[in-house]
């Protein structure tokens, strides 16, 4: 296969659909060349966490400078700390020909789409709303009111599906992972991306 | 996975690239639901050939009626006989939710693209022109002049790559088959094709 720039793969979907499990399974299967996108955060490193491996650790001032200078593909504040995806790291990795894998919330993915339209946006979908509800219920000891609220948010998130390129049903984790890997493999064969590499043949030989 | 209409998969590529071998390998692997598109022909059935299985056998008058009434996705005349792809059979199979697999010459594929723009057009590409040449040389006892002529035609066919959706390198038959199956699996996850099926969830539940 001819050498080309990597793809930015953005996996997202409604809260409770199982994005984290799917992402961990893909990385544990070890049959892709995906690089996990390292986030920037202002929270303190926990024991054993390494700067540039687990996170890029920054001060609030540094993070706010990054926001100001458009150095983040997306960011959010969560429990008093900033979290974001640094453009420079993503760009560097893509230019090395590696695919970057980003697993984020729906709102973050919409931000990324605006900054990086050529990314590959995959929406992970529950097989049904009742299945999503039972996953949310199983996860924690949430009250009925909280559960209903999370379902309402999930429905709003599903409405945002149209901003994505692909919809992958998470009926079984292994099947969902297989579909995601097929999508990435297929995208590497898209004519718009690679035709120029093959057309060079006609000039050279 | 939600039920949807099948895809028309059109595999093509320059003469000598190995389309037939790739198609036979995919069907022998038996892990897809592809239906092989049955051609219409005016040639006489050979012993053991069954109408509606190997070919749809027609008279010249019937075939010319099909041409006249736009009943063929593509057709050509070869050694005094007509060969073509019947639209009705393709449409019927797609509407049953099955993917139809068509392996044809580049010129035929360009005809199909005009009649059936939503098909999935895959261009099978040799790893290099010198590799294509050695495949053509290995095939038969052709003269240098004939080989040069076939290479000239192949280069012209490669120029038509832009009418296709995907380019698959045939470096190894098994890898090419895997890529083609990944492309079909990915296309079944394309948001434009399936979002409406999932959005129904929001109404029903």
From TrEMBL, chains A, B:
UniProt keyword terms in alphabetical order: ATP-binding, Cytoplasm, Kinase, Nucleotide-binding, Transferase
PROSITE patterns, per database record: GUANYLATE_KINASE_1 (PS00856), GUANYLATE_KINASE_2 (PS50052)
Residue sites binding ATP per the record: 13-20
Enzyme Commission number(s) of this protein: 2.7.4.8
Location(s) in or outside the cell: Cytoplasm
GO cellular component: cytosol
Top EC class of this enzyme: transferase
A GO molecular-function descriptor: ATP binding
Main localization, broad class: cytoplasm
InterPro entries: GK/Ca_channel_bsu, Guanylate_kin-like_dom, Guanylate_kinase, Guanylate_kinase_CS, P-loop_NTPase
Source superkingdom: Bacteria
Start and end residues of each Guanylate kinase-like domain: 6-185
Catalytic reactions on record: GMP + ATP = GDP + ADP
Protein family: Belongs to the guanylate kinase family.
HAMAP family cross-referenced by the UniProt entry: Guanylate_kinase
Function recorded in the entry: Essential for recycling GMP and indirectly, cGMP.
Name of the protein described by the UniProt record: Guanylate kinase
